[in-house]
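Please check the following for our workbook:

***
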Amino acid sequence: MFRAQYCCVLLYIFTVKPVNSSSSIRIGTFNLWNVMFNWKERLQYIASVIKEQEIDIVAFQEVRFSTDEATGLTTSQLEEVKKYLPNHKWMVVQPAGPVRKPENAYWKGWTEEGLGVLSKFPMEHYTKINLTTLGGKDANPRLALLVQIKVKQTPHQVINVVAVHFSYEKHQQCQNAQHVLKFLSSTDLDNIIVLGDFNTYPDFPGPVEAFISSVATSCPIRQLHVPLFRDAILESLKPNQKVPLTFSNMPSPGLISRPDRILVSPSIQVVDSHLQGQGDLYVNSFYTAIVIKRIETVFGSAFDSFTGKVGYSCLHDCGPHGSCRCGLCVKGGNKLNCNIPDCAECGSEELFPSDHMMVVAEITLVQS
């Protein structure tokens, strides 16, 4: 999907403060946007934002995985991000399942998609929570990823990070929320942070309200014995400040919704939260590299055509507002897609590092 130039990375950042501790922890969530649009350039910018914002723990959605046919070794995009973040020594990545290639795509690799977490603090344990629902409109496999992270040695102190990426289909979103709440109700976990891309719509807030509201929501979810969570962004709003949006369906009308959330349990105090990822900073730093990459892509598609390859040349679906031509996503809608060798021209700009903003929050854990 396309995103407005100004809503690039949109990393959601917040800061928390642990129990019995005066120090705070900065946590973020970010939809990595798989390998869309100039991944090598985007990953450098994404890593620079994480480093400059001093984010301790980051949850990622739409992480792609690729398996080498010769060695059988599977790698993910997070390995590439981690190379730029030497202080984030701990990582866990889990594929949810295979991705559907665009029809007639001839490229190989990046065949699975899932979730991942990077941390400066040691990871003690992780658990996969299956969210896949059968028979629904959204056939994409889904999971949640619980990662237990030790943020203090003495006394022993752990936060439980639950990374999610819910379905785009409303009914299945409700099922995803129910599955996560049911899992949490079966544990005695404390200091819980549920964060990620809830895919929630302005006219259908139920999948998030199920976590933060005790009243009936638009999701027919059975209430479980789970303490209510709080929305980190809402806790940080100043008087008369508008709730910031995090997602845009490019090229217009700009930011339209807030699917990216960080929800905290009662034992966590939100110190601050904000968004990161303005497109102008990305463009100013990587414009030349992006243009060069576009030229290389066009020449690469021309070479593929010359050598007899036939089919869809882009590494990803360009979405409802984009067309794949000569290996690039350009304006025009998917009805204007062309497979090589039939593409005659290309033109547009993809000057944005993601279709989601990065959400960051600073938190502390409430004194018990």
Remarks:
- Residues 290-336 form one domain.
- Residues 279-306 form the longest helix (28 residues).
- The chain has two domains: 5-286+352-365, 290-336.
